[in-house]
TrEMBL record:
It comes from the Bacteria. GO terms for biological process: DNA repair. Residues 4-246 form the Endonuclease/exonuclease/phosphatase domain. The active site is at Y104, D145 (proton donor/acceptor), H246 (proton acceptor). Keywords: Hydrolase, Magnesium, Manganese, Metal-binding. PROSITE patterns: AP_NUCLEASE_F1_1, AP_NUCLEASE_F1_4. The record marks N147 as: Transition state stabilizer. NCBIfam families: exoDNase_III, xth. The lineage of its organism: Bacteria, Pseudomonadati, Pseudomonadota, Alphaproteobacteria, Sphingomonadales. This is Exodeoxyribonuclease III.
Length: 254
């Protein structure tokens, strides 16, 4: 079972790239982020043999879960703890006995400021949901664009990113505390020395220079981690014409 997280950076603009990816790689479950639309191209997705649920928002945010050969059974949309939060950033479903939490964590820039404060509150709310998922003792994966550079070797340049919200001590502490609940950072487990990127900015020739960083993560519950075979990044898709600035990132489970 190949489970993918993929920030498409606009479902309308990147639909051809997403269709290519689904046809060529045939992943079993795909968590999409940054749809930037309320509507979702469900007809095109179903033509490829996938069912889907989505939580969209006009122009911003938006997450979806796709499953090959079935429709994900929705469990929850949004996180508890801040009723006035209308951002479409979390969607949870069950697919063939696996619990999938798809997320698009707030960027938090500029920091310090209200956006960074919102990011930290959102991470606290995510931590509460993650603890509840672990308590169920089911195979589970939390997958998405976490907008956190967890370690120094998860970026091409610590100096370039040192003032960014993605790498602040508060962001890192919350990410590490989340993992410490009992989750396995699948890509980190496979590449313990880091230097594996999932994002390359459109600016400053980041892609040709391979000046990227790792912010797309798939966290596994103990029951899912026991079934882990491999994890990686389908990096070549970042280099295609009109591609997203993220590459599909994946874990494979038995």
């Amino acid at each position: 079972m190949k489970i993918v997280t993929y920030n498409v950076n606009g479902i309308k603009a990147r639909l051809p790239r997403l269709v290519e990816y689904l046809i060529e790689q045939q992943p079993d479950i795909v968590c999409l982020q940054e749809l930037k639309a309320e509507a979702f191209p469900i007809a095109e997705i179903e033509e490829l043999g996938y069912g889907a649920i989505w939580h969209g928002q006009k122009s911003w945010n938006g997450v979806a879960i796709l499953a090959r050969g079935s429709t994900p059974v929705e469990r929850q949309r949004g996180l508890e703890g801040e009723p006035e939060d209308e951002h479409s950033r979390y969607l949870e479903a069950e697919v063939d006995g696996l619990v999938v939490g798809a997320l698009y964590l707030p960027n938090g820039n500029p920091q310090p400021g209200p956006k960074f404060d919102y990011k930290l509150r959102w991470m606290d709310r995510l931590a509460a949901r993650a603890r509840a998922l672990l308590a169920e003792e089911k195979p589970a994966v939390i997958a998405g664009d976490f907008n956190v550079i967890a370690n120094d070797d998860d970026t091409f340049s610590v100096r370039a990113m040192q003032d960014d919200a993605l790498m602040q001590p508060e962001s890192r502490e919350r990410y590490r505390a989340l993992v410490a609940q009992g989750w396995t950072d699948s890509l980190r487990t496979q590449f313990p020395k880091g230097k594996v990127w999932t994002f390359w900015d459109y600016q400053a020739g980041a892609w040709p220079r391979d000046a990227g960083f790792r912010i797309d993560h798939l966290l596994l519950s103990p029951q899912a981690a026991d079934r882990m075979i491999d994890a990686g990044v389908d990096k070549a898709y970042r280099g295609r014409e009109k591609a997203s600035d993220h590459a599909p990132t994946w874990v494979r489970l038995r």
